[in-house]
Amino acid sequence: MNPVTGTVVAVLLSLVSAAGYALAAVAQSRLAAASPVQDGRGALRGLLARGQWWAAVGLNAAGALAHVAALRYGPLTLVQPLGALTLVAALPLGAYAARRRVTRTEWRGALWTLAGLVGLVAVTGPAAPGEALSLRESLVVAAATALLIAALASGRRPAGRK
Fold it and tell me: I want to staple 67 with a disulfide (CB 3.0 to 4.6 A). Which of 3, 17, 46, 117 is the partner?
């Protein structure tokens, strides 16, 4: 298989993986929230007795298998960041399942996630064995990350938090 075809297959399998994980997360979250029993063991037993829970576990397994298969065709530096699409996919799926609209704040978070994903994929390439950042490059990345975190942390806090 030529490298371009392998990359396309890796991306497609990564998208299938993210979709499987997102569907499973939404299903498991809704099932857990709807559980009538709230004490630890009873709630767990109740969930384990439901076929829907096991269907969600199957979606998680399918997502994991697609992820591993994607790693066969593409580098970790491509496949792993695409896993973050699980967060973006779960947002509208969860809202749809709850019969509500996605809020502007949630969309903004999804857009920041996508921007980070695009940035990460743009700066990473196929990693050659033994390839690593130099000390100087590592320090620049660490400093830029620290500055970004500080800038975001100093911004407006969500209502209700102090």
Answer: 17
Indicate whether 21 pLDDT > 90: yes
Transcribe 108-151 into DSSP letters. HHHHHHHHHHHHHHHH--PPPTT----HHHHHHHHHHHHHHHHH
CB atoms inside a 10 Å sphere around CB 21: 23
Question: Which pLDDT belongs to residue 111?
Answer: 92
For the range 92-96, what are the long-range contacts, defined as Cβ-Cβ under 8 Å and sequence gap of 24 or more?
A: 93/22, 93/23, 93/26, 94/25, 94/26, 94/29, 94/30
pTM: 0.70
Tokens of 58: 């199957």
How many other CB atoms are found less than 10 A from the CB of residue 44? 14
